[in-house]
Here is the input.
Amino acid sequence: MKLILVLIILTSSWCFVDGASSADRKSIHGGSDSANKLFRNARRVQQNYNNYGANNGGGYGGYGGYGGGGGGGGEKDNWFLADYSLKMISCIPGEQSVNYERGQLESSTIIFRLCPKDYCGVSNSTTMGCDSGYGDFAVGINTFAEAYTESVRDSYSNNMQYYSYQYGEFNVEEYVRECRLFEGGQGGGGGGGGGNNNYYSGGGYSYDYLGPACTADGTDIRLAAFKDPYCSEESDTSFESTHNGMELPYGNGGLIPNNCMECLSMNDNWEYEVNEMCKSTYENAGYRCEQKMESYNWYYGQNNQGCGYLDSRLTGKNYNKYTNNFANAYDSFFQEQSEATKMAAGTIALFVLASLVGASAVLCLAKKTVQKVKRRRNLAASTKSLAKDNVSPEEILNWTEEEKLDDMGVLMNLPSMIEFVRSTTKMTKTIVHNSATKIAAMTRSTSKSVKKERNSEKIENTDSNDNNGDDYKTMVDSDEVEDEIVIVEDFVIS
Here is the structure.
């Protein structure tokens, strides 16, 4: 399992070759003894306090060198730290911490988090680096600030002196290591000799003691002036007013970056390795809560003896602060939307509005079409009833307004109705004409039959009815019957 983990780390390390300069800016580098102080001096839990002397640095009751002085475990056991980045999440003023290596009491406590490097700082949902797969740790403010400033010095030793170049003779690193007397032109405090031993020398209270302190919001470290050699009580007067307007470097914060700092860095041989700060401090850390870490030391397992302390500091008095930070980040995210995002939202809104207007137009058109079909059907029904009732066009034109309304109360189309009545009348005339023609034909046929029958009777009664026969012949030859039929036919056709 360890071999596989080593191979994975070595393979992934190639991804960082092109970003070496970026890694140098964000990482806290090791390579010196000062880089070992952060986790080594992290605050021990009470069990370690009681057993520290008896076990001679033996650690947490049977863990061997897991939490004791000098640590334990080989370098190969710490490769998992390459998966993490370090993020400072809280500075608790007045929460004293002990540096056991020096026997030094530090005035404030720093809580920092180890986050998975691929997720540290990429989410806007938290200001604490990450919200899963992390471990929380506590350490004194001097130890933390010194580890960072020394790592910066080591990183830029060949190209720039980050702190000394900007402030000349003022060496910030000297004042973050411990509470130190500032003596103006004495080389940034170097001429003061034994630091706290100068409390009563050179006028005593005429000088300020400088050291690291928490910012007001508890999210950064600043350099401040103090009254006492333990940097427990800040000076009542500003540093500028007592030092001819000289501005105290990092007096408003900014001593520690608020971004994530990777544990994987490049050494002097241009090789990637877990830097000494993360590696050594992890081996010597106390007040640790590793229960959410997905990668950890498989040999020793997770150390969760500091979870109660850390949870109480993060979810107690600092809870509202982080809630407000999250709300501010949330508002800022939506206030800083790009113009492209706003245009896209406007386009979508316009499309939805156009769709609603189009749907309304289609519904209105469909309703009018249905009403038009109903009117046509009602008109057809009305004209049919008029035809059955033999209503003439002249009568329709003489209708009143009420009579011109159909069953739905809609004015009927009178020209269409008149045209329908005329066509119906013409059809009726045709039918009557055909019937009259058939009647005339039947009448002619009947007259011929009668003529033949009378001729037969005439032959039989020639002698006795000679005069009568002459009368009948005269009547038949006169075509009076045909004239009457023609008269009837002409009447019907007209």
